[in-house]
Design a protein that fits this description.
Elements: E1 2-10, H1 14-23, E2 30-34, H2 41-45, H3 47-63, H4 81-104, E3 110-112, E4 115-119, E5 122-125, E6 128-137, E7 141-143, E8 156-157, H5 159-162, E9 171-175, H6 179-190, E10 194-199, H7 210-220, E11 225-228, E12 233-237, E13 240-245, E14 248-252, E15 254-257, E16 261-263, E17 297-299, H8 310-324, E18 338-341, E19 346-351, E20 362-368, H9 373-377, E21 384-390, E22 396-403, H10 406-418, H11 423-427, H12 437-448
Parallel strand pairs: 1-2, 1-6, 2-3, 6-17, 8-15, 9-10, 9-15, 10-11
Antiparallel strand pairs: 4-5, 5-6, 7-16, 12-13, 13-14, 18-19, 19-22, 20-21, 21-22
């Protein structure tokens, strides 16, 4: 049986739902095709449950510091791992339920099953065939797990499995310390688990600036074991897992694999689109329109591998949805890149990464948060911030950081970059005392003084720091 639809959306994750929202403003003749669980990666096993776990861990860690402030009794606090994981699942289920209510309301427009693309206008699902005027591919991503590790069975976890655990192991190895791996490694360590983190590169948390990266590792090693620049090998041992990395080996009960995610193209049969596929098996597409080649096909979210983050997936779904229902495709200016790892201190990037910049054409402003007034009050005075600006114009280009309050500072910087602000523009803004934002001002001032063609300043930029700790 052949069913004609205006739009066939493959995938009910963040990008697919964002696209559907836009599509249904113009037509009810669409289908949302999904294989497996509904609820989105973010709500079910990504952003939301991980942050719930982090909040529990951070609350416990902060409470343990209360004795230094003269508040007694916190040393008697204990962690109930089962209760913590139950709390995480309860919040997770709340967010998932909201998504399920949306998809369940679609009736016959919701199609369960594995989609197979038969051509630029044709999709097959469990014997049902759809002739679609346009197709949106939004099948998301899946965790990377080396084949040789699969034999470890339930001793091997990914973020897809972690939040189903009813308790936590006594000893855990985390392989891969990007944003996800690092967040979870620190949170689980704060809950009393012996955690060993392994990262093949020399950087963690998505950083590319080696100076910030080195400081981040130094700070984080105060709470957990971190091994960088080594590849880990896993083997079953005494009912647990033996991890070997260089001259280091540890024995743990379970391993959390956080080596990133890859586009989940599964059995989509992208070859049927008639385009050359790249090394990852993906077709060429325009990130400003999400269009695949010149076809009536759009690809959005993690599946395209462009910017695998929730807010980017939502944007891409919106773009794909807009263009799928209009004959004239609109190119959208993408937002300034923003990445945040919710470790302590926060690790973040805003704008162009250090690795992507030409070092000979930029100035770098730095600030060390050791002793910074507001951070010191909350016992968070550690970490560094670098801001990068064009050496001629002074326009802010990017920033990398491992600092307290980094999730908020990164937003301020991303907004500034998107508004094409210069260092002078940023220094003209108000800074209240005492705040963490004063640390940002210090870094911007340091960069401003290095400009090749610094403009005369009769305004606030000329107001320098007081050389007094706690007042700057």
């Amino acid at each position: 049986m052949l069913q004609r639809v205006d739009v066939a959306i493959i995938g009910a994750g963040t990008a697919g739902l964002s696209a559907m929202r836009r599509v249904r403003e113009h037509t009810d003749n669409f289908v949302l095709i999904n294989a497996g669980q509904y609820g989105t990666t973010c709500a079910r096993n990504g952003c939301m449950p991980s942050k719930a776990l982090i909040e529990a861990a951070n609350s416990y860690a902060q409470a343990r510091k209360l004795g230094a402030l003269g508040v007694r009794g916190s040393e008697n606090l204990v962690v109930d791992p089962g209760a913590v994981m139950a709390h995480v699942r309860s919040l997770r289920d709340h967010y998932v339920q909201g998504v399920l209510e949306l998809t369940n309301s679609l009736g016959e427009r919701k199609v369960d099953g594995v989609a197979r693309i038969m051509g630029p206008n044709a999709v097959s699902v469990n014997g049902r065939h759809f002739d679609a005027r346009t197709i949106i591919i939004a099948t998301g991503s899946r965790p990377v797990v080396p084949d040789e590790w699969q034999a470890l069975g339930d001793r091997l976890l990914t973020s897809d499995h972690l939040f189903e655990q009813t308790s936590l192991p006594a000893r855990l190895a985390v392989i891969g310390l990007g944003g996800v791996g690092l967040e979870l490694a620190q949170a689980i360590a704060r809950l009393g688990v012996e955690v060993h983190g392994f990262e093949a590169t020399g950087l963690v948390g998505g950083l590319t600036d080696p100076v910030i990266g080195e400081r981040a590792i130094t700070v984080l090693r105060r709470e957990l074991s971190i091994h960088t620049g080594v590849h880990a090998a896993l083997s079953a041992h005494n009912g647990g897992v033996r991890v070997e990395a260089g001259d280091r080996h540890v024995e743990v009960d379970k391993v959390l694999v956080a080596l990133g995610r890859v586009p989940d193209t599964g059995t989509l049969n992208l070859e049927a689109l008639g385009l050359s596929l790249d090394a990852k098996g993906l077709p060429p597409f325009n990130p400003e329109t999400q269009q695949v080649g010149n076809l009536p096909v759009f690809i959005a979210g993690d599946v395209n591998g462009y910017r695998p983050l929730l807010h980017e997936a939502a944007d891409e779904g919106y773009i794909a949805g807009c263009n799928a229902v209009h004959k004239r495709h609109q190119a959208f200016v993408r937002r300034t890149p923003l990445m945040i790892c919710f470790s302590t201190p926060d690790i973040a990037r805003a704008g162009t990464s250090f690795a992507a910049l030409d070092g000979s054409r930029i100035v770098t402003g730095t600030v060390d948060f050791a002793g910074q007034g507001r951070a010191r009050m909350s016992d968070r005075d550690q970490g560094n911030l670098h801001v990068y600006a064009d050496a001629d114009s002074g326009r802010l280009l990017g920033a990398e950081m491992c600092i307290p309050g980094g999730e908020h500072i990164a937003h301020l910087l991303a907004w500034s970059i998107q508004q094409h602000l210069t260092l002078s523009d940023i220094l003209e803004m108000p800074y209240y005392h005492p705040t963490l934002e004063e640390g940002l001002r210090t870094a911007v001032r340091a960069a401003s003084k290095q400009l090749k063609k610094a403009k005369p300043d009769a305004q606030s930029r000329a107001c320098d720091q007081l050389p007094v700790r706690g007042l700057d």
